[in-house]
Structures are given as structure tokens and as C-alpha cells.
Amino acid sequence: MSLNSILEIGKSGLNIYQLATEVTSQNIANVNTPGYSRQQVVLETAPTTTANGFPLGTGVRISAIERYYDGLLQQQLVTAQSTQGNDTTKSNVLQQIEPTFNEVANDGLGAAISNFFGSWQDLSLNAAGSTERQTVLSRAQILVDNFHSVSTTLTNTIATQDSALVPLTSDISEKLKNIAQLNGQIKITQLVSGNANELKDQRDQLLRDLSTKVGISYKEQSDGTVDVNLAGDPTKALVTGDQYATMYTDNAGGTTKNDIYLTAVGNPPPANTPATDAKITTTVGGTNNSLGELGATLALRGTNVVGISNGIIGGYLAKVNELANQIVTQVNNNHNDVTAQTLIPPHRAYDINGAAGGDFFVGTGVTAATISLNITDANKIAASSSATAPADGSNALVIAGIQNASIPFATGSATLNSYYDSLVSKVGLDVQSSKNTVAQDNAFTQQLTTLQQSNSGVSLDEELTNMVKYQRSYQASAKLITTATDMMDTVLGLIQ
Amino acid sequence: MRITQNMTANNSIYNLQQGRAKLDKLQELAASQTNINRPSDDPIGASLLLSIGDQLKAGDQYASNITKATTFLNVTGTALQGMADTVASAKKLVGGITSGSSDQTVLDNIAAQLTIFKKTLVDMGNTQVGNQYVFGGGNGQKPFDAATAAYSGDETALNVQIGQSATQQMNIPGNQVLTGTGVTTPYGTTNILQTLDDLITAVKTNNVSGIQAGANTLEAGADQITKAQTEVASRQTRLDNTATMNTNNKNTLETIAGNVQNVDYAKLAVELTNQQTAFQASLSATAKVTQMSLLDYLG
Fold it and tell me: Where residue B87 falls among pLDDT bands split at 50, 70, 90?
């Protein structure tokens, strides 16, 4: 072994500790970059040579620049964030609806129903009184307005959810495209034995972002790329290598709401053609639409695109509609003069002029949106059960009695008020459980993020320590070179 | 486990958020003074509150019905008392001349007074509460014609709901009291108005047997009014009892609702103080921990 090899070893030290400091500086610079995994140089001894019969190392070299990365944690995070995105969206929207049903703090539909039937009670006390008659009409109008308001709020929320699908799907498509691009770059980088750590970090971050929007499953291939499929339907490929699909909304076929379509993968993917592309409205949200913001939006809006929504909000709306229809049916049945009817008990109903009573509300089969008054003249209110007794209030009493009557709803018999109360309670339960789920999801994600950070996060203290360590090593390597130079000088001095 | 500054920062933010959320909730309770501010705060409690609220609203409506019916019956009672007084006066007046009188002036005078009494009875029979005739029934007509004294009301019962399944008739048809000519005659069949007419004729013509018969019939008529008064009194008693029950019921329901809904201030104050201390501690800890760095010690 010659003095030259000491110089070589010193030089390799200088090079390598400079590189190590560069990696440290990269770590420090990216301490707050989302999704960044810390990197570290992995050092190994350079091959040994035999000098003077002894094997000796030839210095240090870098075997790899590793990133600290836990694939299992990444998988768990992707799944957890899918659930979190789903529950958060659901909770936010439900909390927006809750005030409509907040009968605890404000008077709403429930109070309007009570007041409406209360006004019939008042009328029964003074059937000929014009004030009482007018009050029944105003209370009925307030009831109708309340139904309209609730219906409008719910219908608007459904429409909002429907239109939210458009930016959501284009955001997803954009992310798919980015993932495919990164896949391509990673593949090329690895082909030339380059370091694709940062690219992989970016892709992992994109996968996590994507999973909050839509449920996905993914698999890393040997060439470093990942294939992404739809969790709700694993046969549907979203990204394959550098090819990607487009997810888009369309109301092809004249449906009132948007369907979600997926093109085949390609680079670039084929143009959107709803006629041949896969319709994934019912599968994209996963089981019970439990995955991602897209799933939550679909769960709220419902997956059917024609007719009444089958989603959560549609369920509320259906209940409010049934309530409106029952009130209309019951009040009309008793407000009509019925002498021979098998379904309704025959009873007499006459207005103040002795004319037979007709419909109080318009029509049958009404919804909360279409409920309206049939009577505009207070004299036409049929409070009496005798054509010759306009001051008789016995029919008003019968109609007031509807409030306490058990009425056959689809979910079982209940009084009007208790049916509405149970709806309020249901909305409350849904909101409460969604809030609780979000709190749990947040805690779970927080825990996973902590674990992931523990593994991949940059610790400034650690990097600073490494920096000092590498600096000292660099100094030592430099000293080695100085020493070797001195030794060289000494040797050269021998010759003089 | 390896801990990085970012983990500390994230966890601090998370925990501070949790603390803030708890403080915010307690602050809302303190400000609103109610435990349940929206259905999701306690769906089961909210359901109970709503159910109690419905019952309270119904109770208020019954209370209002009872008040109106009581007013109606009080006016009826006053009118009946006036009728009883009038009939008693007529009886007294006639009692003085049961054996007739030779003085035509006296007879004419008495006949004139009896005419006024009859008019008084008709007026009382037309007593109104607001626009309702208390003795009128269901057809809304003025019950007694001032000239002919014929009854033009009907006997429809005006029922009022005073409880969930309890109704009470509030009117007494005038013909059952003053003419005794109704389809049903629960108080008697004496036609008081006709009797007065007969008496006036008998007095004018000094018909002693007619006067005596009239005086006897008036006696029966007074009985008839008394029976109607008893009926009104018993209805008032029922309304009073129902009102009391209604009030008791309301108090009970309000107590139950209060137990669910009213904030326990002592408990809230303790919780608020606890939470405040905890939050201040976490703020202080966060401030101290996040400042620590190796950089402070590297030259």
C-alpha cells in the first residue's frame, strides 16, 4: 500500500461526507414537505486490497441513498383516509341539514303542525267566528310554507351534492394522470439506476390524496410503478403503468342527475363516450358508498339518477313527503262531506253557508314541495256537521282530533307529531353518529400519521447531529490528506 | 419510538384542537343554559323533549279551550241567575193578587210589569259572548224573537275539547230553559214565556183561576231554571277540575323537560374550570416543548 492510496481514501471520505451532508441538507430543507420521507446515505467499505500480505480497505463508498418508508403503513393510511374523507364529507353535509330539523331550539315544521290543528280547536269553540276561520287559513298557509321550505332545503342539498360530483371526478382524473406521469418517470429513472425517492414520495402523497376522494386499491410493480384499481370494483383499472383512465360525469340519456363513467386506460386515455364507457355510479363508492368523498356524496345524493333520491337526504325527503301527504289525505277526508264511503267513516261536513265541504288542501298524492291550499275563502271551511247549523263546530273538532289520531305510515302507525319527532330524532342520530365517526377517524389517522412520521419524518435534531457528525468526518478526511501530504514531504525530504 | 419535531407539532395541534373543542362546547352550554341545542347533541333526549313539547302545546291548547268555555259558562250562569231573579220577582208580584183585585189600575200596572219581565227574560235569552249566542245552539240565529218570543235557535251541542279524549258541551239551548219545548227537555217542560203571556191576559181580565194557575206554573218554571243553573255549575266544576289536572300535568312535564334540558351550573362550573386548567397546561407545555431545539446549543 502506498501513500497515494491514503490520499485516495481521504478523497473518498471528502466526496462521500460532502454527499452525506447534501442528503442531510435535503432532509432539512424538506422538513415540512407533506409526504416527504427522510433519506439517509448507507455507507459501506470499499473493496479490500491486499497490501504487504494483509487485506486492507480502500476507503468508504455509498451503497444506496435510502428513503425510510413503510409500505404497510402507507396501505393503512390510504384505507384510513378513504374512510375519513367519506365520513368527513357526510358529517359536514348532515350538519348543514340539521338546522332545518332543529325543533329543539326553534319552532319549525313540528310547531306548524301543532299550531295548525290548534287553530281547528279554536274554530270548534266558535265555528262562525271570522277571526277563528281566518286563523285556520293562516295557520294552514304557514304549515304549507314550512313544508315548502324543508323540501326546498333538502332538494337543494341533493342538487348541490349532484353538482359536486363534477369537480370531484375531474379532480380524481387529474390525480390519476399525475400518478401515471410519475409512474413513467420512476420507471425511466430506475432503468438508468437513478434515485427515484422524491418521485416515489410524491406519488405516495398523490395516492393518499386520491384515496380521500375515492376508494382505491393499488399494487407496486417490480419496475417501480404502481397499478391503481377501483376498490369498489377491482376489475376497473384507474392507472396501469404510465396509462391512466378518465373519470367523468354525464347525464347521458337525459337523466335528471349525473351518472359517473370511466374510460379505458391509455396515454392519453380515449375520449369520453358515455355510450361505451363503463358506468360506475353504483360501484365507485364501495360497499354502502362508504369510501372516499365520492362515496359520501353518492350516499347523500343517492345512486339512482331518475326519480326520488335513494340517498340519505332523499330518505329524509321521502319521510317529509309522506307526512305532507298524510296530513293532506286525513284533513281532506274529514273536510269532505262524505255520506257513503267504505274507507272513511261517513260523516257530514258543511261550510258556513251550509254548502257541503270539499278538499281543504289541493289534490291527493302530494309531496312537501307540491302541498297547497285548495280553499282561499275562510267561509268555505267546513267546521259544521249540519247544513243548517253554521255555528256548530263539531267537524272542526273532528279535524282537530286528527292530531291525536294514530295514522298508518309506511314505517308503522304513529301520530303526526310523533312521526315528525322521530324524523328529527333520526336526523339527530345520523349527525351524532357521523360526528363521532369523524372524531374516531381523525384519531385513527392521527395515530397512523404519527407512526408514519416516526418512521419517515425528518427530525431536525437528528439531522443536525448527523450534520455535525459528517462535518467532523469531512474534517478528519481532510486531515488525512494533509497528513499524507506531510508524509509525502517527509519521504521526498529523505531524498535530498 | 422515534419522535420528530413535526410529530410533536402535529400532536400539539391535534390536542389543542380537542381542548378548544371541549371548551367551546362548555361555553355553548353556559351561554345557552340548555343541554340540548340541536338534535345531534342527544338524539334520545331531543326526542323526549319534542314529545314533551308536543304534549305541552296540546295542554296549552286545552287550557285555552277551557278558559274560553269557562267564560262562556260564566256568562250563561249570570244570565240564568238573572232569569231566576226575574221569575222570582214575577212570582212575588203575582203572589200579591192570587185572589184578584177590584182595582183595574193595580191590575194594569202588574200586567205592565209582567210584560217588562217577559222582555227581560227574552233579552237574557239573547245573551252573547263575543258574537255567539249562549242559548242559541248551532245555527247561529238570534234565539228569541223580541216580538213573538219564538225560539229560532236549535239544540246542537257545542262541544269543546278539554283533554286528549275528553269533550264538554258548553251551551244550554234556550228552549230547554225558557220554553221547555225542546226535542229533549232535561230540565222540565214549563213554557215560562207562554206562562207569562197567559198571566198577563189573566191579570188584565182579573181571571182569578188563571192567575192562580199561572203562579203555580211560574213555580215550576223557577225550578226549571234552577236545574239549568245546577247543570252549568256542575260543568264549571268539571272544567275547574280538568284545568287543575291540566296544570299539574304541565308542571310535571316541565319538570321532566327541565331535568333533561336545564344545565347544571355547579357541574358546568367545575367542568369549565377543569377544562380551562387542562387547556392552559397544554398551551404552556406546547409553548415550552416546541421551542426546544439542538440549534440553540450548536456553536
Answer: very high
Domain boundaries, chain B: 62-256
Residue A34's pLDDT is: 87
Which percentage of chain B shows pLDDT scores above 70? 100
Best CA proximity match to A262, nearest among A235, A280, A250, A244: A280
pLDDT in tens, A195-219: 888 999 999 999 999 999 999 999 9
pTM comes to 0.85
Q: Where are the domains of chain A?
A: 3-38+459-495
Are A450 and B10 a contacting pair at CB < 8 A? yes
Q: Which residue has the cell 357521523?
A: A434
Q: What is the rounded CA–CA span in Å between residue B190 and residue B196?
A: 11
Q: How far apart are CA A460 and CA B4, in angstroms?
A: 7
With a cut of 50, list the residues of chain A below it in pLDDT: none
Within chain A, what is the greatest distance between any pair of CA atoms?
A: 147
Distance from CA of B140 to the nearest CA of A (A): 5
CA angle at residue B247 from B244 to B251, to 5 degrees? 140
C-alpha cell at B292: 426546544
Q: What ipTM did this prediction achieve?
A: 0.83
- Chain B residue with the nearest C-alpha to that of A459: B4
Would you call B208 helix, strand, or coil by DSSP? helix
Contacts of A458 in chain B (CB under 8 A): 4, 6
Lowest-confidence segment of B24-33, B144-153, B186-195 by average pLDDT:
B144-153
> What is the CATH topology of the domain spanning B62-256?
f41 fragment of flagellin, N-terminal domain (1.20.1330)
Cell numbers at A288, concatenated = 354502502
Cβ of B130 and A126 within 8 Å? yes
Q: Does B138 sit within 8 Å of A389, measured CB to CB? A: yes
Cα(B188)–Cα(B203) distance, integer angstroms: 25
3-class DSSP string for chain A = CCHHHHHHHHHHHHHHHHHHHHHHHHHHHCCCCCCCCCEEEEEEECCEEEECCEEEECCEEEEEEEECCCHHHHHHHHHHHHHHHHHHHHHHHHHHHHHHHCCCCCCCHHHHHHHHHHHHHHHHHCCCCHHHHHHHHHHHHHHHHHHHHHHHHHHHHHHHHHHHHHHHHHHHHHHHHHHHHHHHHHHHHHHCCCCCHHHHHHHHHHHHHHHHHCCEEEEECCCCCEEEEECCCCCCEEEECCEECCEEEECCCCCCCCEEEECCCECCCCCCCCCCCEECCCCCCCHHHCCHHHHHHHHHHCCCCCCCCCCHHHHHHHHHHHHHHHHHHHHHHHHCCECCCCCCCCECCECCCCCECCCCECCCCCCCCCCCECCCCHHHCCCECCCCCCCCCHHHHHHHHHHHCCEEECCEEECHHHHHHHHHHHHHHHHHHHHHHHHHHHHHHHHHHHHHHHHHCCCHHHHHHHHHHHHHHHHHHHHHHHHHHHHHHHHHHHHC
